[in-house]
Amino acid sequence: MNSSRVLVTILVLGAAVAGCGGRPSVQAGAGPVVLGSATFAGPIKAPVRYPNSGITLTVPAANAAAQATASWSDAYANCMSGAAICDATKPPTIALATATVDKAGTEGVNGSVVPLLNDTLVYVLSWIGVPCSPVGGPPGANSSAQKFSCTLLNLVDAKSGKVLYTVESPEP
Question: How many domains does the chain have?
Fold first, then answer.
């Protein structure tokens, strides 16, 4: 793997975990966690775009549920194992979707970004209205006083049950 790909991977991972400022989340080694009952909504009914995070969710094919070898409860189990970043204060809504992530990935031959996910069947674990704090800003800025309401998403491979991408963003 070349250094450009490593850098892109580090940036993606850093962006995925950077916005966890001060809210309860499930993390590896954090001890026993009790999570509420999740709701499985089935396949999404309409496309959804999260422009800040570069995520596009589309309605999966009619036979998608049959192609999903992992269950939605397997996807949710990632919250218990620490493989996913989850809001421990409330359970997520879980849906089946086809996902493309175009603002993260690896470097292509011409320097463009090869999307991390491209029409990949996933379970989407979502929490809406999660308190979050801004990350970055000018040196010396006190961002801890500012609080926002964010959406937390985990995209979990519907075939393997592994977390593919996690993002928290101030968008619906």
Answer: 1
